[in-house]
Amino acid sequence: MDILITIWEYFANNILQKPEFMIGFIVMIGYILLGKPWYETLGGTLKAIVGYLILMVGSIGLTSNFRPVLVGLKDRFQMDAMVIDPYFGQNAVTAGVEEVFGKGFGDVMILLLLAFIVNIILVRFSKYTKMRALFTTGHIQVQQAATAYWLILFALPMLSDNRLGLLIVMALLLGAYWSVGANVTVKPCQEITDGAGFCIAHQQMFGIAINYWLAGKLFGKKNKKQDENKDIDDIEMPGWMAMFNDNMVSASILMLAFFGAILYILGEDYLIQGGFMKQGDSMLFYVIETCLYFAVNLAILQLGVRTFVAELTNSFQGIANKLLPGAIPGVDCAVIFGFGSQNAVTLGFIAGFFGQMIAIAALVLLQSPVLVIAGFVPVFFDNGSIGLFVNKRGGLKATLILPFISGICQVFGSAIIAGWVGMAAYGGYLGMWDWAIIWPIFTVAMEYLSYIGVAIILIAMIVIPQLEYRKDKEGYFLITEDYEAYKELKATK
User: pTM here?
Assistant: First the structure.
């Protein structure tokens, strides 16, 4: 048993938690199962790893490039508060779980293994469960396992002395969440990408599905004679505004106007003292360079997506054919930025940022015992993703309104749950859409209904894909197996 645990820990630390190697591992297994020659397998594996590394360069660049803004807003307003960010949340659990619950962090990796096994089983029997998505983003699984560990220990303290029972409950809840959450993004992803063959396995899966549905209901077709609202890229700009039709130009101008103004408000003295800007540098050109790097990093991210997505989806057919019939891989939300409208990503990000700032101001005015500092990961990757998806269904209005509401919900939801369960005292909470809205609901159900609450959550999640299947029995599996045939089916209806 100890040997198996050692092997698992080695795999988890060196492959599962490093998404580039996890994607490469999946591609390698898929091509081996497809019977590809060794040189094609090696080439595809390396291309997938390099592509994901390129994507990470873009993601890290986006995060670090706007650190002066987020740090500056905290320092200028003298806020001592928790940060809503996946890595701050994971660090908070690591620092506080032993002090609060008398537990070590080691069980989290065992929980992750068991939950992943639950995900595999549910997908393997998709004929009955109707779940089609394998959660492949290991670094996200670690962050979520850490937060779930704390929330479930808080809501079900009787499990603290029952290690086996604790791991079983956590594995079932987390495994079901991964399976159902990724599954509800299958249709939105296939429609956005025109059948690229992946879905989202990240921190805002229910957020994407719910907002995608809301965009269609609130901003989409009004009646059968009307077309859906045009997405942002289909809007023809008149005269000089035609330059906004170019994604790179429009992203650059929007970021110059928005974050450039914030940088000027923070001031040259602060930026020099904080080490963000060198003494003697031009403030004007510092602002221009900082804001234009947003467009640069988005372009890098898109290149990474284009490099590895084809390898992943092609090779995954081997896994789907031999091991998990009908399954598709769930990937990082950043992958979707290679599809759809980049203007929607930018506008969704800005709208979500405004929503977060208004919510943070409200917490200050209300003298909330828990104050929140915006983290870049939730505000960009949640709201940028939501903006891209809702633009497809509801156009410009949906892209501005729904991410704005999302930003408000992220702050208020995180402040409430982190303050209640005690995680705020350790400086961070995961803070992304599902964990600011869906998991607080889970926690309330478990806290007040105990094991009955656990059962209700599990039953509700199992029912969701069944309802999706009943709504479209002909197209439900066809959408992943043969997207062209799926489109023909929809056209005939």
Answer: 0.83
